[in-house]
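Continuing from the previous page of notes. For each protein in this section, the sequence appears first, followed by its structure tokens. Read the first protein now.
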Amino acid sequence: MPVANLFNIPVQLVVLDFVSIAAALGVGYYAARMYYHLRQGRLEKGWNMILVGAALIASGYFFLTVEDFFLAQSFFYVSVDYIGTVICTVGLIVLMMGLRSHYSAWSLRRSERSKSNVVEERERDGDKLIDLK
């Protein structure tokens, strides 16, 4: 008789929990590795925030997965659930701020072009359209 059935725990839940923990640890691991390989530049702030957000989401998801090992409605279950939810929420907010920073850096790059360059590009694009006719 398998150990999971001895305690009346569904085998698929145990497998799903272990796969979830492995995936969360993998996301945290690669976020940490990428954090140390970033270079100074305009996009560094956004990437740092994205990676910190991803690591927070992975650690919060770890707590949300571990809660399945406790009895529902027990103190540990509720505590781990709240901790995981708070960490995931903070991770999502940091991730959103990193994406916003990335968007701001890219839109700043676009707005730095002078109007004359934009006009020249439009004229070149217009010439291409005329050539196609």
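Done with the first. The second protein uses the same format. Note its length before scrolling.
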Amino acid sequence: MLWSSIIMDETTLFDLFVNGSPLAGFAGYLVWQTRSMQNRFDAMSEKSESREDDLRARYDKVITDLQSEKEVIKDESKSAIGELSTKIDSLERQLQDVEKKFDQIMLSIQQLGTTVQELRFKDIVRDNNKNT
């Protein structure tokens, strides 16, 4: 039983310790020790809660920092992907232009080849006409 739950004045308590049985003093010591231990436990508990709150705050800060870093990386990645997509589209258009020009050059070469063959035939015919 704790002394805080017993309502007595100082003289009654002193009289109880002095005139009471030897166990009364021991009981008083136990009450004092229990209060002392409870106070220490409360202090340790508060200190532990304070440390826990500090750790929780640090943990929350780390998580927040990591999440914001993740968002930055995600945004940068999206931006880089968008730029690369634009560049790829531009390269595809340029490649299509090059293919068209290549096809035009090939057609011109074929026409030149046909013209050269026609001129050769004309030369051969002319040479045959001169020789005959």
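What the second structure shows: The helical segments are 10-19, 22-131. The first helix runs from residue 10 to 19. We return to this in next week's lecture.
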